[in-house]
Write a structure and sequence with these properties.
CATH topology of the largest domain: Cytidine Deaminase, domain 2
CATH architecture of the largest domain: 3-Layer(aba) Sandwich
Largest sheet: 5 strands, mixed
CATH class of the largest domain: Alpha Beta
Structural class: alpha+beta
Distance between the termini: 38 Å
Strand order of the largest sheet: 2-1-3-4-5
Shape: elongated
Helix content: 40-55%
Oligomer: single chain
Radius of gyration: 21 Å
Order of helices and strands: HHHHHHHHEEHEHEE
Number of domains: 2
Length: 247
């Protein structure tokens, strides 16, 4: 994706002194977002909108492309500490705060009123809720989505960090919030930092154990999703593959 960003910047031939107002109006990030929607913009363009202005002899579009390149893409931008980001040329405190605030708003997506809660109808919905964040983690993490009778996500619980395997996963912790909130189902999600979302044999053992525990508690495990930072194959549903499920 970073290659695409660099190609885009090169195609527009942004010189070191080019300002946003010098770019044709239909190619300016804010105008493109207004006319085509945010999904039509490149990573560099979205970041440029947050940064607003560049620095002396560097346009904001050139600056955003450089930041993504030097930090290793969106994953690096997400993982960079405040100080690491603020040390980048042209950043300082204000721009860093803007980026960190935008990332945090995305993380808080679920803190909304009930009528706005995401509805899960398949693996991609799960990815959109938590996977797009988890794929950028440099460690394994397991999260539990608690769903109501309408398959709306009412809570997300982050549990294990580091190594997620059957010997570490405790049934009581996985089902705790569903029991406390008296909800009928959960979806388990964990990431593979390696970039390969293929479920392991231990993932299957963990799933089977949780499915059986859910039956005893009358809480259905709807799926176990594995996500990874992989453009071609970023999300795998263990239920769809019949791994650990007998229903």
């Amino acid at each position: 994706m970073i290659g695409d960003e660099q190609e885009y910047a090169g195609r527009l031939e942004y010189s070191a002194s080019l300002l946003i107002r010098d770019v044709p109006q239909d190619e300016r990030p804010r105008e493109r977002l207004r006319d085509r929607g945010a999904q039509a913009l490149s990573h560099s363009e979205l970041l440029a909108i947050l940064l607003r202005v560049g620095r002396r002899n560097e346009s904001v579009l050139t600056m955003s492309t450089r930041l993504l390149r030097d930090l290793g893409g969106l994953k690096g931008l997400h993982q960079a500490t405040f100080d690491e980001l603020a040390r980048q040329p042209g950043m300082a405190v204000a721009k860093t705060a803007q980026i960190k605030a935008a990332l945090e708003l995305g993380r808080r997506l679920l803190d909304v009123s009930p009528e706005q809660r995401p509805v899960i109808s398949g693996p991609e919905d799960v990815y959109n809720v938590v996977g797009s964040d988890m794929v950028f983690l440099d460690h394994e993490e397991l999260r539990v989505l608690v769903l109501d009778t309408k398959n709306q996500v009412i809570h997300v619980e982050s549990l294990y960090r580091g190594t997620v395997n059957s010997s570490h996963v405790r049934t009581a912790e996985v089902f705790r919030e569903a029991v406390r909130r008296n909800q009928p189902s959960i979806i388990v999600v964990h990431n593979h930092p390696s970039g390969d979302p293929t479920p392991s044999a231990d993932d299957e053992r963990t799933t089977r154990h949780l499915v059986e525990a859910g039956k005893a508690l009358d809480i259905k495990v709807l799926d176990h999703i594995v996500v990874a930072h992989n453009e071609g194959n970023r999300v795998v549903s263990m239920k769809e593959k019949g791994l650990g499920f007998d229903y």
